[in-house]
């Protein structure tokens, strides 16, 4: 039996062409089977940015540069200017506060949240944050085992001077801001700073929101500030999670007791306590945010 005949065309294809074809097929197979690099990104991709926002730096009296982030509502400002919410720990909280504010404000009366200008200040390193957010406590240091033990404290008043003297005027220069409606929100040591401002700078903010504040700091420093100023003029919200416990015991008990004493004064302070059921310390800022923003609204201003 004669051998099978080859395809007549193949006999006339130059060997170089056959080699090139085999190389092309091999290259296609390799490309198809090769894994995509984990960090590869098309050149056309762009980073997500927050609409109607800006970032700039301001220098404090000690020469430290702070990054300031701002997000403003859509449309024209009210005749008195936008109310302003100053947000501490800006690198962590700016985007979530601004976006939550916008989403809830779109719901109008259903959410009880009105549009606000959100201004966040970056806290920087842990050492800088602890120094900036803690009031001066001569003769007292954070005890061993407590949060931030060993770090320098006492820069709160200088930081509030920076907010009042540098940040607020720059915000008013760039945007239409209502000077009578300036609020501050902070978590943990940031909540401590919000409380210190509430008692020591009554004309700086009309509303203070302190989430999981470090009431234990300074050996009951904030309780002493409350006793020295039993009739604060602003509004105050303190929130704490039922799953968090500080050096002074369960956070809910400490916060609720602090607010009860404020409201028991004559005349009673405009203070509110919010328990965040089941929330640990690290989650309370996010868990308490919707209620905190509603607390700022006109319908809750009493």
Name of the CATH superfamily: Alpha/Beta hydrolase fold, catalytic domain
Share of helical residues: 25-40%
* Sheet of most strands: 8 strands, mixed
Got a strand count? 10
Q: What is the CATH C level class, in words?
A: Alpha Beta
Alpha-carbon distance between the two ends = 107 Å
Q: What is the residue-averaged pLDDT?
A: 87
Radius of gyration: 29 Å
Order of helices and strands: HEEEHEHHEHEHEEEHEHH
> Which of globular, elongated, flat, extended, rod-shaped describes the shape?
globular
Query: Number of folding domains?
Result: 1
Strand portion: 15-25%
The DSSP helix count reads: 9
Low-confidence stretches: 1-13, 23-33
Could you give a quick summary of the protein structure above?
With 302 residues, this protein is an alpha/beta fold. Helices cover 37% and strands 20% of the residues. It is built from nine helices and ten strands.
Can you describe this structure?
There is one protein chain. This protein is α/β, with parallel strands linked by helices and 302 residues long. The chain has one domain: Rossmann fold (3-Layer(aba) Sandwich). The protein has nine helices and ten strands. The strands form two sheets. The chain has an eight-stranded mixed β-sheet with strand order 1-2-4-3-5-6-7-10, with helices on both faces. Helix 2 links the parallel strand 3 and strand 4. The N terminus is likely disordered.
Topology diagram in text:
Layout: H1 15-33, E1 53-59, E2 65-71, E3 82-87, H2 90-106, E4 117-121, H3 126-133, H4 156-174, E5 177-187, H5 189-200, E6 207-211, H6 217-228, E7 235-241, E8 245-246, E9 249-250, H7 251-263, E10 270-276, H8 284-287, H9 289-295
């Amino acid at each position: 039996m004669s051998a099978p005949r080859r395809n007549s065309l193949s006999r006339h294809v130059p060997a170089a062409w056959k080699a090139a074809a085999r190389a092309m097929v091999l290259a296609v197979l390799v490309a198809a089977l090769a894994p995509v690099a984990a960090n590869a990104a098309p050149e056309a991709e762009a980073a997500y940015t927050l609409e109607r926002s800006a970032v700039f730096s301001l220098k404090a009296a000690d020469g430290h540069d702070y990054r300031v982030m701002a997000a403003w509502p859509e449309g024209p400002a009210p005749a008195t200017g936008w109310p302003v919410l100053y947000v501490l720990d800006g690198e962590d909280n700016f985007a979530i506060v601004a976006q939550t504010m916008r989403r809830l404000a779109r719901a109008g009366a259903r959410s009880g949240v009105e549009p606000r200008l959100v201004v966040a200040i970056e806290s920087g390193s842990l050492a800088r944050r602890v120094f900036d957010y803690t009031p001066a406590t001569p003769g007292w240091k954070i005890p061993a085992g407590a949060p931030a033990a060993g770090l320098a404290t006492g820069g709160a008043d200088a930081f509030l001077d920076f907010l009042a003297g540098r940040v607020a005027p720059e915000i008013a220069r760039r945007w239409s801001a209502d000077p009578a409606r300036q609020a501050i929100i902070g978590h943990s040591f940031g909540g401590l700073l919000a409380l210190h401002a509430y008692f020591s700078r009554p004309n700086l903010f009309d509303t203070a929101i302190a989430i999981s504040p470090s009431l234990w700091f300074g050996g009951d420093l904030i309780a002493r500030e409350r006793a020295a100023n039993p009739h604060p003029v602003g509004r105050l919200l303190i929130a704490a999670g039922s799953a968090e416990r500080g050096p002074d015991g369960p956070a809910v008990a400490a916060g609720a007791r602090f607010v009860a004493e404020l409201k028991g004064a004559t005349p009673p302070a405009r203070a509110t306590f919010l328990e965040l059921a089941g929330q640990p310390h690290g989650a309370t800022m996010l868990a308490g945010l919707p209620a905190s923003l509603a607390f700022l609204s006109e319908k809750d201003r009493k």
